[in-house]
Amino acid sequence: MSNQQSNEGAPCCPPLAQKPLTSDWATDLARMFKALGDPVRLRMLSLIAGHQGGESCVCDISPEFDLSQPTISHHLKVLREAGLLECERRGTWVYYRVLPEALEQLSAVLATESGVLQGSACACASTEPSQETVS
């Protein structure tokens, strides 16, 4: 998702209604949206994001689904490759965390107002406070 172009003083993640997507950026976003288009993966992302501490062991995720372990691993891999999750191995278990900047980017690009969501990781570094606020 480093294919975005940053202009000084302009939001890095302008809403769709403000500026057309570049081909590379559209490809990155489509990969994330495609990963979230599966109900199982959307639930997994929600479970991980809502888990205490913001991370979840695969042992916490598996019992929530009537799926085999290889299928669960496949769905988690898709979410990871789409840039929505990161993981860390601790002993025999793998712990997953949602990447907040990815969710902020998806939110910002779908925003109906111009500007960037307050507190978004997409906000370009600026010394002046933003004139716009999005509610």
Secondary structure elements and pairings:
Blueprint: H1 23-36, H2 39-50, E1 55-57, H3 58-61, H4 69-81, E2 85-90, E3 93-98, H5 100-110
Antiparallel strand pairs: 1-3, 2-3
Give a verbal description of the structure.
The chain has 135 residues and is an alpha+beta fold. It is 40% helix and 11% strand. It is built from five helices and three strands. Strands 1-3-2 form a three-stranded antiparallel β-sheet. Helix 2 packs across helix 4 (69-81). Residues 1-11 and 122-135 have low confidence and may be disordered.
Radius of gyration: 17 Å
Number of helices: 5
Strand content: 5-15%
Order of helices and strands: HHEHHEEH
What does the main sheet amount to? Answer: 3 strands, antiparallel
- The side-by-side strand order for the widest beta sheet comes to 1-3-2
Count of beta strands: 3
Mean pLDDT, rounded to whole units?
Answer: 78
Alpha-beta classification? alpha+beta
Terminal Cα span? 25 Å
- Global outline: elongated
Overall helicity: 40-55%
Oligomer: single chain
Low-confidence stretches: 1-11, 122-135
Short synopsis of the structure:
The chain has 135 residues and is an alpha+beta fold. Helices cover 40% and strands 11% of the residues. The chain is elongated.
Keyphrases for this structure?
single chain, 135 residues, alpha+beta, three-stranded antiparallel β-sheet, 5 helices, 3 strands, 40% helix, elongated, disordered N terminus, disordered C terminus
